[in-house]
């Protein structure tokens, strides 16, 4: 019963309750609908209120918040639903249904009621969420409310144009790119970003950037480029010499790509003068304000990019970031900032300078700025310049204080780079720093002011030095205008800016005048009146560096006394490269700088009583005037690099009692030894003790014995002191340090307190200890070197290790260099080494007894992980010429000889239970000539070298592997050691190296030698799959005799080797490599055709690989989509260079069936294997017989070939492989050298036409078996060929007839449309260019050289004449036919300018007929040498066509032709019995009687060793009127007749009318000379020899 009750209850639960709920919705239908109508009204009203707020925000220019838009969308959706479904048609439908459908109507009412209640709830939620505090926001500003870390280059417009420029830089056809835009638009910033990106992405091997500026200074530009290329240019050489060195550096490596960025070009720039020749390898990127400069003058019109101003949104992003957080919190200030940003008109420099100037300013200031920006001053004539000027002037106005403003204007009067040193000297002399009495105080103030200018973006940091700055050119120009208009300060620049002197009235009120030398500055007046002048600076171009055509500005290279008269207020006088006769009494002068000046009499300098700064640096002064001792107010004296200075009189320096800074480096004064009665001609260094205010000292003291005791005190704050010896070398890193000490002491020298004090405080310490037995470091009594950052020790033959100091003695050391310390066994103990936490560079060189870098002491127990000796910041490790080095860390008991255990340990390994060394930041590792090292690193250490970028191991004769696996670190299958950042791997001269990694598949013998497990045959590749180099770009292998292959290929088919995706350069030289890629054991047959892809390789060099047989054994395809340069040389066992993969695959099958041996190519390719290859060089390949052709040879007897195109066809049973597309679409240069067995370049059996659409240069050298260069079918494919050179080859013809096809065509036309240079030399078997009747045409050929072609008898003949000759000889059944090397028509050589025919022993005829002679209408230079069978150069019947020749010929040189009788012979023997000749001049008469003959532009006529020469023109006399332009006539050892009869008739000199008769012995002279009417020849030395050789 209970069961029944429970069942009924459940039924009621699932039936009655839902029915009741359903009836409830129907019963409350009316109330639900009424509530819905009320809520609808509320929602409409609320929507109107929100819309009113939206309208108000829109009128303010605000944009609507996204949540407001979403709310409105939901409201509109509900209202639409109510109008169409609920309160519209749905409600009406529910009320009009008939009673017959009561049940149906009840159901509909239920649905509407239920939907109404749900919508009412939704409306209530919307009303609740619609109470917006604000509906709009200011456009753009709100987008950047959150602080971000983006700079200018993060703007989308800049990213876009940068990507386009980078794409153009990657285009092989573009070598010049221009970027132009208005001033301040950000061109320089963009160039710096491209500079970094080009380096980071390794698009170029090297990148250099130089600022050209409006003041063109070729010397400076060369220096900036050279500095970035690590090239030292001699500063004493002229521009052209420096350009040659720079050009050689840029073109040194044919496989390196270099980008040179020249920023801010103002006018046409001669790149050649700088030393830059744009090419595919050396690309040039230029920027300029003027598009015409780039497009027209710099030839970048097609590859120019305009850098425009930024858009409104981007402008706000940049502006807001620079203005800071203050504008983000204040709504009113933010709105005002948006308006100011718009007023900057999107100009980046304006956005940056204005935003930083207004940082943290109040609202009133912002409003005032907006007024100033929108109302530019009318004095500027261009709209954009007005805005730029206003923006930068505004930044100047808002500089805080007069000091910083004055410094800003002072910077504008400097050169391009602003020196911190000059600012200090000039600013102190101008009393720019208020409340400052000493130079030390001025330094501190200057540091603050410079930082203010840098923060305002008005002064930028130089990339070359921390002590140099520069101004953007726009900022500098604005500053110059401000200085001129408001402060009467003028700047004159020779190559830009103001060139003319200010007028007289302007000079009278002028306060500052700066002049920078140039060729166009007007000559200065003899005297100028500048009564208010306070600052005068003149800088001439260096007279030693300038080119001969460059001069200092006119007249200003020497200044006379009178020039300075009237400058009574002058406070700063700075002259550079000026010759100064004497100094007037400028009693108010504070700063005098005469750098690099030629000084005559400056004894009057003692009158300058107020002088506080005096610089004579690099001047030619030899004796320091004693009058300088009268300058008791002097605070700075600079005598640096006064190489001629020999005498500093006694008591002069000691008189300068207020001196704070003294600079005397690189002078050769012989200091007197300190003594009680020093009466020598020179001062003693002891005088410096009397300078109680001295805090900066730079001095060289060659003789340490002259050093007085306790010379140096603790007052010295900055010093660069070199004691002992001569320090000629200067290192760039020295500039970064303010305290430097170089010591080269003798054995008896003892350190006093002063030197010890300097040692403790120095930042840069260089010790040359070749003359002492005990290191300086041993004399410091365990003192610390807390401030030492750079330590260099060299030439110590006694020190065994750097002495034991405190653990933290070198805690700030960043660079440690040790060189040539013979007895040094280690550097530091482990306790000292543990304190080298900041060490960044370690360089140890030529320490023959060093066994370890650091030694672990017995008592030095490591307690925990935090106590480990770490090298966490070490970035560069260089170990070179350390023959006894066995490890980086060793134990105290291990001597330098090491023990057997040490020899088997790697250089870098773990010691004990915990790692003692850790190189997480190591980027450069170089190990060279360390003979005892067998391994570089353990696998555990290698795993931590994630940042390593460059690894170079050279000349380590016992190196067996680079990385060795530790027993506890067994590398399992699939376990890989990643060198994430490694870009360069160089392994060179490592005779024992068998692999990069020694794994558990190998073991070491007792002597540490690696051998393969199981046998002694090495199967390990150089780079096994257990190591990966995902960033590797350069792989250089050289001198690795035990390396048999580079990579392994497993059974799994892989397209691209893991870790080689970025590889760009592969160089394998002098190695024992048998194959590049090897099949792993058991993996060779798994895949039918493997595809090996090297996606980024640009350069591939395989040189002197005597054992190399193939790239990969087996059927495969290699693909090199980016390969541009390939050089294969000295690979003696390579029988086939490459063939199509299908051909090879079928050959394999055929030869397997016939059980014959197979010849495998080096490369197996398809039509897409080398799509980008531009240069192919093949040399010393003894087995090659054909280069381009098909793979013949089912029987194996046919020659194998280089490249077979592939379309998988068979023809006549021969396996062929024809390409459906171009096989070498980009090949430009083909160079073949020393290929003794090659018979054909293109196979003569090939029926297909190969397409080499871009081939421009073909060179063949010493190919003795070469029969022909290419078949007739290939000629039409060489449309771009420009240079054809064949020398020392066995060719019989250049173009070969294919398969007897020569007779099928009556007349062939062979056209080489782009060839400009043709050279055939030492082709002793050459008979003709092409056998058979044909015409060859060379429309662009400009230069031709034919030499030592012994079988050539006729140079050229008209093809019609040759065709008739062929017919005649066939009729007479004559077998011997003389075919010319060239068969031509009138248009064969229309552009030929230079023709050289040399050593043609059998040549009888040059041009056989009139057609042939007419084929060279524009010949300018003709040279014929050693053609002993030649009787005449030209033969003609003086037809009018020869006039063309006479009009164009400028140089004619005939020499050593023993049978030559005339240059232009008479055309006799029409029966063909006489030798026909090229051409003779025309008389212009129909009857052939010689009239006047003239060569109007011939400048040189040379006739050498022509013993039978009788005529220039046979039967025609010439006089000097025939040679009106002749400049040089050379006759040397011609026939005796010619020597006697060279001149005949009358000769009248230009200075006398007296007639001089020359004796005559024959009736007709070679020359008839009547008068000297050739002024050119009459003043030119004639080279004559009247002594016949025969």
UniProtKB/TrEMBL annotation:
Which Pfam families does this chain map to? Answer: LRR_RPS2 (PF23247), NB-ARC (PF00931)
Alphabetically sorted, this entry's keywords are: Plant defense
Q: Which GO terms describe its molecular function?
A: ADP binding
* AAA+ ATPase domain ranges (all copies): 173-315
The cross-references to PANTHER family, in alphabetical order and at most eight, read:
NB-ARC DOMAIN DISEASE RESISTANCE PROTEIN, NB-ARC DOMAIN-CONTAINING PROTEIN-RELATED
Entry protein name: AAA+ ATPase domain-containing protein
Organism in which the protein naturally occurs? Carya illinoinensis (Pecan)
């Amino acid at each position: 019963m209970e069961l029944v009750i429970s069942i009924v209850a459940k039924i009621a639960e699932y039936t009655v309750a839902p029915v009741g709920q359903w009836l409830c919705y129907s019963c409350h239908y009316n109330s639900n609908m009424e509530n819905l109508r009320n809520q609808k009204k509320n929602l409409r009203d609320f929507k109107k209120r929100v819309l009113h707020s939206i309208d108000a925000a829109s009128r303010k220019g605000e944009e609507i918040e996204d949540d407001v838009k979403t709310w409105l969308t939901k409201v509109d959706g509900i209202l639409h639903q109510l109008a169409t479904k609920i309160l519209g048609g749905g409600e009406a439908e529910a009320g009009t249904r008939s009673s017959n459908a009561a049940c149906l109507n009840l159901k509909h009412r239920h649905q509407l009621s239920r939907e109404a209640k749900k919508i009412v709830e939704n409306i209530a939620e919307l009303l609740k969420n619609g109470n917006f505090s604000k509906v709009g926001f200011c456009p753009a500003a709100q987008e950047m409310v959150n602080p971000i870390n983006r700079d200018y280059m993060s703007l989308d417009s800049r990213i876009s144009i940068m990507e386009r420029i980078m794409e153009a830089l990657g285009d092989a056809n573009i070598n010049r790119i221009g970027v132009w835009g208005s001033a301040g638009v950000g061109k320089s910033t963009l160039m710096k970003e491209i500079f970094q990106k080009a380096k980071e992405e390794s698009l170029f091997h090297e990148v250099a950037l130089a600022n050209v500026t409006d003041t063109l200074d070729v010397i400076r530009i060369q220096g900036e480029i050279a500095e970035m290329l690590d090239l030292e240019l001699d500063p004493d050489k002229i521009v052209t010499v420096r350009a040659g060195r720079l050009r050689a550096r840029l073109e040194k490596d044919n496989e390196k790509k270099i980008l040179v960025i020249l920023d801010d070009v103002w006018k046409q720039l001669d790149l050649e003068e700088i030393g830059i020749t744009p090419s595919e390898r050396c690309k040039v990127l230029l920027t300029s304000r003027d598009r015409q400069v780039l497009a027209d003058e710099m030839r970048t019109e097609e590859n120019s990019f305009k850098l425009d101003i930024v858009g409104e949104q981007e402008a706000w992003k940049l502006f807001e970031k620079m203005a800071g957080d203050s504008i983000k919190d204040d709504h009113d200030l933010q709105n005002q900032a948006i308006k100011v940003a718009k007023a900057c008109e999107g100009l980046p420099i304006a956005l940056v300078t204005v935003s930083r100037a207004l940082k943290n300013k109040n609202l009133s200031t912002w409003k005032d700025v907006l007024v100033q920006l929108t109302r530019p001053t009318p004095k500027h004539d261009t709209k954009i310049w007005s805005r730029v000027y206003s923006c930068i002037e505004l930044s100047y106005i808002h500089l805080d204080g007069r000091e910083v403003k004055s410094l800003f204007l002072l910077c504008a009067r400097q050169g391009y780079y602003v020196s911190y040193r000059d600012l200090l000297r000039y600013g102190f002399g101008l009393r720019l720093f208020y409340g400052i009495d000493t130079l030390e105080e001025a330094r501190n103030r200057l540091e603050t002011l410079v930082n203010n200018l840098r923060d305002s973006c008005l002064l930028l940091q130089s990339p070359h030095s921390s002590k140099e700055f520069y101004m953007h050119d726009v900022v500098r120009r604005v500053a110059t205008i401000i200085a001129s208009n408001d402060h009467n300060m003028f700047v004159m620049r020779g190559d830009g800016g103001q060139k003319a002197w200010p007028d007289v009235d302007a000079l009278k009120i002028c306060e500052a005048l700066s002049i920078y030398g140039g060729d166009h500055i007007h000559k200065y007046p003899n005297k100028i009146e500048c009564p208010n002048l306070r600052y005068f600076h003149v800088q001439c171009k260096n007279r030693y560096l300038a080119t001969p055509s460059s001069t200092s500005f006119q007249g200003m290279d020497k200044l006379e006394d009178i020039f300075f008269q009237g400058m009574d207020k002058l406070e700063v006088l700075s002259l550079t490269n000026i010759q100064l006769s004497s100094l007037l009494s400028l009693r108010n002068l504070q700063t005098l700088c005469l750098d690099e000046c030629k000084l005559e009499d400056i004894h009057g300098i003692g009158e300058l009583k107020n002088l506080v700064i005096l610089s004579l640096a690099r001047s030619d002064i030899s004796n320091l005037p004693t009058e300088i001792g009268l300058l008791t107010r002097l605070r700075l004296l600079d005598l640096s690099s006064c190489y001629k200075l020999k005498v500093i009189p006694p008591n002069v320096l000691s008189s300068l009692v207020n001196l704070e800074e003294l600079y005397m480096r690189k002078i050769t004064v012989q200091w007197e030894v300190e003594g009680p009665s020093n009466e020598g001609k020179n001062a003693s260094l002891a005088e410096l003790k009397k300078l109680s205010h001295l805090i900066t000292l730079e001095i060289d003291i060659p003789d340490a014995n002259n050093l007085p005791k306790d010379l140096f005190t603790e007052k010295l704050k900055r010093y660069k002191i070199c004691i002992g010896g001569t320090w000629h070398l200067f290192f760039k890193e020295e500039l970064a340090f303010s305290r430097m000490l170089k010591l080269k002491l003798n054995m008896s020298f003892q350190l006093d307190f002063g030197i010890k004090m300097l040692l403790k405080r120095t930042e840069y310490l260089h010790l040359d200890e070749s003359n002492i037995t005990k290191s300086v470091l041993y004399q410091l009594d365990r003192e610390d070197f807390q401030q030492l950052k750079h330590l260099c020790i060299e030439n110590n033959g006694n020190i065994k290790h750097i002495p034991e100091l405190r653990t933290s003695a070198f805690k700030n050391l960043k660079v440690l260099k040790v060189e040539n310390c013979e007895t040094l066994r280690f550097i530091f103990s482990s306790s000292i080494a543990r304190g080298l936490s900041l060490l960044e560079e370690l360089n140890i060189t030529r320490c023959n007894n060093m066994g370890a870098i650091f030694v672990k002491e017995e008592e030095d127990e490591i307690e925990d992980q935090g106590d480990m000796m770490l090298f966490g910041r070490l970035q560069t490790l260089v170990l070179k010429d350390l023959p006894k080095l066995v490890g980086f860390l060793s134990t105290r008991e291990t001597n330098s000889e090491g023990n057997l255990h040490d020899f088997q340990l790697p250089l870098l390994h773990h010691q004990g239970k915990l790692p003692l060394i850790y190189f997480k930041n190591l980027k450069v590792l170089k190990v060279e000539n360390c003979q005892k090292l067998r391994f570089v690193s353990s696998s555990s250490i290698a795993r931590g070298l994630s940042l390593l970028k460059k690894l170079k191991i050279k000349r380590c004769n016992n190196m067996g592997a680079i990385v060795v696996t530790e027993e506890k670190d067994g590398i399992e299958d699939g376990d890989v050691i990643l060198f994430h950042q490694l870009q360069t791997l160089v392994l060179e001269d490592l005779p024992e190296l068998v692999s990069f990694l020694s794994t558990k598949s190998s073991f070491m013998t007792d002597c540490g030698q690696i051998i393969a497990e199981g046998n002694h045959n090495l199967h390990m590749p150089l780079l096994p799959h257990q190591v990966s180099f995902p960033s590797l770009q350069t792989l250089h292998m050289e001198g690795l005799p035990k390396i048999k292959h580079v990579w392994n290929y497993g059974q799994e088919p892989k397209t691209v080797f893991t870790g080689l995706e970025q590889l760009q350069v592969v160089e394998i030289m002098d190695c024992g490599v048998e194959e590049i890629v090897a099949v792993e054991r058991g993996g060779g047959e798994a895949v039918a055709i493997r595809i090996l892809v090297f996606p980024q390789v640009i350069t591939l060099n395989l040189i002197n690989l005597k054992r190399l047989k193939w790239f990969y054994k087996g059927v495969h395809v290699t693909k090199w989509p980016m390969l541009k340069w390939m050089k294969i040389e000295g690979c003696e066992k390579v029988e086939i260079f490459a063939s199509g993969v299908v051909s090879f695959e079928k050959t394999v099958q055929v030869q397997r069936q016939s059980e014959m041996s197979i010849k495998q190519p080096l490369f197996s390719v398809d039509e897409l294997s080398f799509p980008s290859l531009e240069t192919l060089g093949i040399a010393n390949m003894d087995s090659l017989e054909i280069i381009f052709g098909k793979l013949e040879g089912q029987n194996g007897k046919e020659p194998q070939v280089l490249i077979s195109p592939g379309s998988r066809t068979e023809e006549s049973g021969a396996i062929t492989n024809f390409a459906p597309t171009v096989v070498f679409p980009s090949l430009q240069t083909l160079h073949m050298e020393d290929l003794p067995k090659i018979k054909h370049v293109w196979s003569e059996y090939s029926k297909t036409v190969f397409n080499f659409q871009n081939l421009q240069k073909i060179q063949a050298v010493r190919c003795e078996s070469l029969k022909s260069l290419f078949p007739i079918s290939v000629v039409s494919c060489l449309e771009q060929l420009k240079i054809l050179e064949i020398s020392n080859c066995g060719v019989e013809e250049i173009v070969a007839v294919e398969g007897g096809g020569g007779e099928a065509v009556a007349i062939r036309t062979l056209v080489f449309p782009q060839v400009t240079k043709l050279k055939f030399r030492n082709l002793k078997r050459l008979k003709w260019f092409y056998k058979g009747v044909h015409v060859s045409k060379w429309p662009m050929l400009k230069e031709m050289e034919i030499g030592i072609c012994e079988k050539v008898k006729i140079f050229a003949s008209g093809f019609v004449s040759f065709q008739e000759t062929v017919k005649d000889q066939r009729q007479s059944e004559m077998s011997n036919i003389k075919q010319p090397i060239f068969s031509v028509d009138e248009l064969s050589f229309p552009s030929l300018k230079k023709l050289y025919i040399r050593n043609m022993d059998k040549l009888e005829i040059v041009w056989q007929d009139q057609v042939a002679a007419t084929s060279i209408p524009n010949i300018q230079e003709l040279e014929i040498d050693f053609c002993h069978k030649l009787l005449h150069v030209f033969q003609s019947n003086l037809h009018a066509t020869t006039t063309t020749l006479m009009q164009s010929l400028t140089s004619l040189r005939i020499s050593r032709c023993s049978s030559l009788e005339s240059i232009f012979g008479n055309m006799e023997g029409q029966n063909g019995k006489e030798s026909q000749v090229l051409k003779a001049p025309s008389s212009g008469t129909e009857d052939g009687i010689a009239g006047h003959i003239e060569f109007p532009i011939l400048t040189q006529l040379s006739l050498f060793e022509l013993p039978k020469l009788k005529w220039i023109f046979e039967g025609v006399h010439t006089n000097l009127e025939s040679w009106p332009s002749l400049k040089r006539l050379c006759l040397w050892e011609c026939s005796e007749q010619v020597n006697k009869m060279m001149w005949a008739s009358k000769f009248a000199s230009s200075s006398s009318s007296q007639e001089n008769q020359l004796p005559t012995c024959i009736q007709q002279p070679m020359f008839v000379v009547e008068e000297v009417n050739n002024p050119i020849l009459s003043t030119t030395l004639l080279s004559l020899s009247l002594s016949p050789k025969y």
